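Supplementary Methods, section 5.1.

A reviewer requested that the exact input to the structure prediction be made available. We therefore reproduce it here, unchanged from the version used in the analyses.
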Amino acid sequence: MNEGNAMSRLALRFCAWSEHWFPDAWVFSVTAVLVVAAAAALNGAAPTAVAKAFGDGYWTLIPFTLQMCYVLVGGHVVASSPPARRLIEALARRPTTGPGAIGMVAIVTMLLSLIHWALGLVLGGLLVKALGRRRDLPMDYRAASAAAYLGLGAVWALGLSSSAAQLQANPASMSRELLAITGVIPFTQTIFLWQSLLMTAILVVLSTLIAVKSAPAPAQARTATMLGVDCALAAEDRAPASRPGERPERSPVLNLALFALGALWLYGEFAGKGAIGAITSLNTYNFLFIMLGLLLQWSPRRFLDSVYEAVPSTAGIMIQFPLYAGIAMMLTAAKAPDGSTIASHLSTFFASIATRDSFPVVIGAYSAVLGFFVPSGGGKWLIEAPYVMQAANDLQAHLGWAVQIYNAAEALPNLINPLFMLPLLGIVGLRTRDIVGYTFLQFLFHTPVVLFLLWILGLTLTYVPPQIPQ
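The structure derived from this sequence is encoded token-by-token as follows.
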């Protein structure tokens, strides 16, 4: 019996361990809350201050929570439409082997994530389900689902939807205090640096190779059927309207009228902000997908059925995101009598031990560690940027590369943090423990490679003082 190569056997061991020991994401989230609360109390913050920070922060991510729910709903509505289904099904017919299918999922997901992370996450998950419906393909459904997560765990922050790069390129989005430290940093000095493009290409190739090499041999592969996952497409209701009240539901008139109104607003957004500026707003992105869903689903009945099908997948997001908001607030707002916080202690420590040459490794490692507790690309950058960018100025490190250090390192904890796995898990019908063995293997390879690339490529860049607009 073919037992696979050393890497696939290692991945299976990680999976066996995680399936036995890894708790549900809710347990993990609550544990993280209690650890941070205890750390803040040990730092000298009063228990009432810790509790206040947690309670005050709990609801601060509600807009983001709803946005993430809409990412799932909007992506599902578009991707489950007849045209998108035909495209996904065509892609799903191409692979002839399980590892080949997993490699295709990895590449498609990462390339789409460079355009927008949510696009890669949703369509990657739906592609995995389409592959899972093939009875002739001995594909490990867990490994394929983990491959669909690689966009968010490897390269998304190096692409167009990088929150940090977008913030630094738009002075109107920054506070005066932050602008005085960093100045305006255009895309040409962050995501479009040749050093950044090279690092992105290396990570795409590395991630795909690991995904393919770690895929279980056919004898060890656990298909969707073995895991009890139903990958069948929902049956379409093609019956004609049986009563007058159903006729508007099955006519495209309402969808087309609403789409026309939304398209006019989108035209104004794209004309005023440009394609990149418009699409990087998560509200605009979600609105675009909802409008596209209306058009592609054609009738209100089909559109609503697709929405109802997607909504149960949002349960994990709705109940767990507020916990992470509370963690972020405890890190930054639960103050000791001397005014210090857990975040300030961490920043002082890491910034004090860095030199110009070691800056990428030290700050990269720090950002990755903090990202495990504050898994929010844009929100975490607002926490880190003042002291990280000030340290870059003091050490005369390239400011644009400092942003990319953050971006590359910020993705690392995503590989083992269950927070952003939730949308994908809702789509593919698995739990965190089912895929974290494979993503942990990616994490083991990515961490030294990313830190090395940040260091060696950073040596090719020279410091440019902040460009502060008048």
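The chain has a mean pLDDT of 83. These observations are discussed further in the main text.
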